[in-house]
Amino acid sequence: MSTQTLPDVETRPEGTDHTGDDTPKMFHYVRKAKIAESAVMGTHVVALCGEVFPVTKSPKPGSPVCPECKKIFEGLPKGNSGQ
């Protein structure tokens, strides 16, 4: 009887980060009132750019921001807290 080593098989869905961690590639702007609900309940949020996802991480200072979300946010009237 002989043994054989099988090659590693990629099991991640397409389009995910392949760096070995679950850190998002960029962060999105979402309604403030929905962030805690998503983090606790696992519900999905909709970003300004239309991306839909559950909140799993908090951005750190200097984290990359979705350019489309940033453009939309900067075009919103001042004083709109998004709640």
UniProtKB/TrEMBL annotation:
The record's region (Disordered) falls at 1-24
The Basic and acidic residues compositionally biased stretches are 9-24
Specify the protein name: DUF3039 domain-containing protein
What's the superkingdom here? Answer: Bacteria
- Where does this protein come from, organism-wise? Saccharothrix espanaensis (strain ATCC 51144 / DSM 44229 / JCM 9112 / NBRC 15066 / NRRL 15764)
